Amino acid sequence: MSDNTDCDDGDASVHEPQLYYVDADGDGYGSTTTTMLCESVAPNGYSDNNTDCDDGDASVHEPQLYYVDADGDGYGSTATAMLCESVAPSGYSDNNTDCDDGDINVHPGAEEVLDNDKDDDCNGFIDDGALGEEALELDVIKVLPNPFNTNLIIELPTRYNSQNFEIFLFDLNGRLIIEHNLISVNGIITVNHLETLQQGMYLLKVSTALDNRKLIKRVVKF
Protein backbone atom coordinates (compact mmCIF):
# COMPACT_ATOMS: atom_id res chain seq x y z
CA MET A 1 0.00 0.00 0.00
CA SER A 2 1.11 3.56 -0.67
CA ASP A 3 -0.25 4.76 2.72
CA ASN A 4 2.48 4.94 5.39
CA THR A 5 0.44 6.50 8.20
CA ASP A 6 0.20 3.43 10.48
CA CYS A 7 1.93 4.28 13.75
CA ASP A 8 2.05 0.59 14.81
CA ASP A 9 2.01 -1.85 11.94
CA GLY A 10 2.07 -4.77 14.39
CA ASP A 11 -1.29 -3.94 15.90
CA ALA A 12 -4.27 -3.98 13.56
CA SER A 13 -6.46 -2.29 16.17
CA VAL A 14 -4.60 1.01 15.98
CA HIS A 15 -3.09 2.95 13.13
CA GLU A 16 -2.92 6.52 14.41
CA PRO A 17 -2.02 8.06 17.80
CA GLN A 18 -4.84 8.10 20.36
CA LEU A 19 -5.54 10.67 23.06
CA TYR A 20 -4.80 9.46 26.62
CA TYR A 21 -4.62 11.10 30.05
CA VAL A 22 -1.74 10.83 32.49
CA ASP A 23 -2.56 8.57 35.45
CA ALA A 24 0.29 9.34 37.84
CA ASP A 25 -1.13 7.49 40.85
CA GLY A 26 -2.09 4.40 38.87
CA ASP A 27 -5.68 4.18 40.08
CA GLY A 28 -7.13 3.92 36.57
CA TYR A 29 -8.44 7.47 36.58
CA GLY A 30 -6.57 10.09 34.58
CA SER A 31 -5.72 13.72 35.17
CA THR A 32 -6.22 16.58 32.75
CA THR A 33 -2.68 16.17 31.39
CA THR A 34 -2.89 14.63 27.92
CA THR A 35 -0.62 12.82 25.50
CA MET A 36 -0.95 11.12 22.12
CA LEU A 37 0.11 7.45 22.10
CA CYS A 38 0.01 4.79 19.44
CA GLU A 39 -1.83 2.35 21.70
CA SER A 40 -5.24 0.68 21.30
CA VAL A 41 -5.74 0.66 25.09
CA ALA A 42 -4.31 2.93 27.73
CA PRO A 43 -0.88 1.64 28.81
CA ASN A 44 0.42 1.68 32.37
CA GLY A 45 0.53 5.26 33.69
CA TYR A 46 -2.25 6.48 31.43
CA SER A 47 -6.03 6.39 31.30
CA ASP A 48 -8.75 6.87 28.74
CA ASN A 49 -10.57 9.32 31.06
CA ASN A 50 -9.67 12.52 32.92
CA THR A 51 -11.96 12.09 35.94
CA ASP A 52 -9.34 11.92 38.74
CA CYS A 53 -9.70 14.89 41.10
CA ASP A 54 -6.35 14.10 42.78
CA ASP A 55 -3.85 12.25 40.60
CA GLY A 56 -1.36 12.12 43.44
CA ASP A 57 -3.50 9.94 45.72
CA ALA A 58 -4.57 6.51 44.53
CA SER A 59 -7.09 6.19 47.36
CA VAL A 60 -9.37 8.89 45.97
CA HIS A 61 -10.43 9.87 42.50
CA GLU A 62 -13.73 11.67 43.03
CA PRO A 63 -14.94 14.22 45.65
CA GLN A 64 -16.16 12.72 48.93
CA LEU A 65 -18.89 14.01 51.27
CA TYR A 66 -17.62 15.56 54.51
CA TYR A 67 -19.17 17.64 57.29
CA VAL A 68 -17.92 21.00 58.53
CA ASP A 69 -16.23 20.76 61.96
CA ALA A 70 -15.96 24.43 62.91
CA ASP A 71 -14.89 23.88 66.52
CA GLY A 72 -12.29 21.23 65.68
CA ASP A 73 -13.50 18.57 68.12
CA GLY A 74 -13.65 15.82 65.49
CA TYR A 75 -17.43 15.83 65.27
CA GLY A 76 -19.12 17.49 62.30
CA SER A 77 -22.20 19.66 61.92
CA THR A 78 -24.94 19.27 59.34
CA ALA A 79 -23.13 21.63 56.93
CA THR A 80 -21.61 19.58 54.10
CA ALA A 81 -18.76 19.91 51.61
CA MET A 82 -17.52 17.78 48.73
CA LEU A 83 -13.74 17.41 49.00
CA CYS A 84 -11.21 15.43 47.01
CA GLU A 85 -9.72 13.85 50.15
CA SER A 86 -9.50 10.21 51.22
CA VAL A 87 -9.80 11.19 54.91
CA ALA A 88 -11.42 14.22 56.49
CA PRO A 89 -8.94 17.14 56.55
CA SER A 90 -8.66 19.69 59.35
CA GLY A 91 -11.94 21.56 59.79
CA TYR A 92 -14.04 18.66 58.53
CA SER A 93 -15.37 15.35 59.81
CA ASP A 94 -16.78 12.15 58.35
CA ASN A 95 -19.80 12.39 60.69
CA ASN A 96 -22.47 14.98 61.49
CA THR A 97 -23.11 14.11 65.15
CA ASP A 98 -22.09 17.42 66.79
CA CYS A 99 -25.10 19.19 68.32
CA ASP A 100 -23.13 22.44 68.90
CA ASP A 101 -20.33 23.01 66.41
CA GLY A 102 -19.45 26.29 68.07
CA ASP A 103 -18.34 24.71 71.36
CA ILE A 104 -15.39 22.30 71.40
CA ASN A 105 -16.54 20.89 74.76
CA VAL A 106 -19.92 19.78 73.37
CA HIS A 107 -19.97 16.57 71.34
CA PRO A 108 -21.01 12.91 71.65
CA GLY A 109 -19.26 11.29 74.60
CA ALA A 110 -18.47 14.57 76.37
CA GLU A 111 -18.96 14.78 80.13
CA GLU A 112 -22.14 16.50 81.26
CA VAL A 113 -21.63 19.66 83.30
CA LEU A 114 -24.37 20.47 85.78
CA ASP A 115 -26.55 23.55 85.44
CA ASN A 116 -24.97 24.94 82.28
CA ASP A 117 -28.16 24.61 80.21
CA LYS A 118 -26.31 22.56 77.60
CA ASP A 119 -26.65 19.07 76.21
CA ASP A 120 -22.91 18.46 76.57
CA ASP A 121 -22.92 14.87 75.27
CA CYS A 122 -25.44 15.50 72.43
CA ASN A 123 -27.85 12.79 73.59
CA GLY A 124 -30.88 15.08 73.54
CA PHE A 125 -31.02 15.74 77.30
CA ILE A 126 -29.65 18.66 79.32
CA ASP A 127 -27.64 17.93 82.49
CA ASP A 128 -28.59 14.23 82.49
CA GLY A 129 -26.16 12.02 84.37
CA ALA A 130 -24.00 14.91 85.60
CA LEU A 131 -22.41 13.93 88.89
CA GLY A 132 -24.45 10.74 88.64
CA GLU A 133 -27.76 12.33 89.64
CA GLU A 134 -30.70 14.13 88.11
CA ALA A 135 -31.23 17.68 89.34
CA LEU A 136 -34.71 18.22 90.82
CA GLU A 137 -35.47 21.73 91.99
CA LEU A 138 -37.15 22.45 95.31
CA ASP A 139 -40.43 24.37 95.09
CA VAL A 140 -39.17 27.83 96.02
CA ILE A 141 -35.64 28.61 97.18
CA LYS A 142 -33.27 31.55 97.40
CA VAL A 143 -29.50 31.36 97.57
CA LEU A 144 -27.83 34.61 98.60
CA PRO A 145 -25.71 36.56 98.34
CA ASN A 146 -24.71 35.58 94.85
CA PRO A 147 -21.91 36.40 94.20
CA PHE A 148 -20.81 35.38 97.70
CA ASN A 149 -17.65 35.80 99.72
CA THR A 150 -17.62 34.37 103.25
CA ASN A 151 -20.98 32.58 103.49
CA LEU A 152 -24.08 31.43 101.65
CA ILE A 153 -27.60 31.70 103.00
CA ILE A 154 -30.18 29.21 101.69
CA GLU A 155 -33.81 30.22 102.23
CA LEU A 156 -36.19 27.24 102.03
CA PRO A 157 -39.96 26.76 101.80
CA THR A 158 -41.64 26.48 105.22
CA ARG A 159 -42.35 22.78 104.83
CA TYR A 160 -38.60 22.17 105.03
CA ASN A 161 -38.19 23.74 108.49
CA SER A 162 -36.02 21.73 110.91
CA GLN A 163 -35.14 19.24 108.22
CA ASN A 164 -31.76 17.65 107.65
CA PHE A 165 -29.95 18.69 104.45
CA GLU A 166 -26.82 17.61 102.69
CA ILE A 167 -24.93 20.55 101.20
CA PHE A 168 -22.35 20.01 98.46
CA LEU A 169 -20.23 22.50 96.56
CA PHE A 170 -18.61 21.37 93.30
CA ASP A 171 -16.32 23.11 90.85
CA LEU A 172 -17.35 23.15 87.18
CA ASN A 173 -15.40 19.95 86.53
CA GLY A 174 -17.62 18.08 88.99
CA ARG A 175 -14.93 17.90 91.71
CA LEU A 176 -16.36 17.99 95.26
CA ILE A 177 -15.02 21.01 97.16
CA ILE A 178 -17.20 21.17 100.31
CA GLU A 179 -19.64 18.76 101.96
CA HIS A 180 -21.83 19.59 104.98
CA ASN A 181 -24.77 17.98 106.80
CA LEU A 182 -26.90 20.84 108.18
CA ILE A 183 -30.35 21.37 109.70
CA SER A 184 -32.59 24.21 108.56
CA VAL A 185 -33.47 26.68 111.30
CA ASN A 186 -36.58 28.78 110.68
CA GLY A 187 -36.28 27.90 107.01
CA ILE A 188 -32.65 29.04 106.81
CA ILE A 189 -29.42 27.13 106.20
CA THR A 190 -26.17 29.06 106.51
CA VAL A 191 -22.95 27.75 105.00
CA ASN A 192 -20.01 29.53 106.60
CA HIS A 193 -16.23 29.78 106.22
CA LEU A 194 -16.14 30.07 102.43
CA GLU A 195 -13.61 32.90 102.31
CA THR A 196 -10.74 30.54 101.50
CA LEU A 197 -12.29 29.37 98.23
CA GLN A 198 -10.76 30.59 95.01
CA GLN A 199 -12.72 33.11 92.98
CA GLY A 200 -14.87 31.59 90.26
CA MET A 201 -18.09 29.74 89.53
CA TYR A 202 -19.31 26.77 91.59
CA LEU A 203 -22.28 24.42 91.62
CA LEU A 204 -24.25 24.30 94.85
CA LYS A 205 -26.25 21.13 95.49
CA VAL A 206 -28.83 20.98 98.26
CA SER A 207 -30.41 17.61 99.00
CA THR A 208 -33.09 16.70 101.54
CA ALA A 209 -33.97 13.25 102.89
CA LEU A 210 -37.57 14.35 103.48
CA ASP A 211 -38.72 13.64 99.94
CA ASN A 212 -35.41 12.99 98.22
CA ARG A 213 -35.62 16.26 96.29
CA LYS A 214 -32.54 18.12 95.18
CA LEU A 215 -31.58 21.60 94.09
CA ILE A 216 -28.59 22.56 91.98
CA LYS A 217 -27.70 26.20 91.40
CA ARG A 218 -24.75 28.11 90.01
CA VAL A 219 -23.05 30.42 92.50
CA VAL A 220 -20.08 32.73 92.10
CA LYS A 221 -17.28 33.38 94.60
CA PHE A 222 -15.66 36.82 94.44
UniProtKB/TrEMBL annotation:
Name used for this protein in its record: Secretion system C-terminal sorting domain-containing protein
Pfam families referenced in this protein's UniProt entry, alphabetically: Cu-binding_MopE, Por_Secre_tail
Keywords tagged on the record: Signal
Residue intervals of the Secretion system C-terminal sorting domain: 144-212
UniProt entry tagged with the keyword Cell membrane: no
Organism name: Snuella lapsa
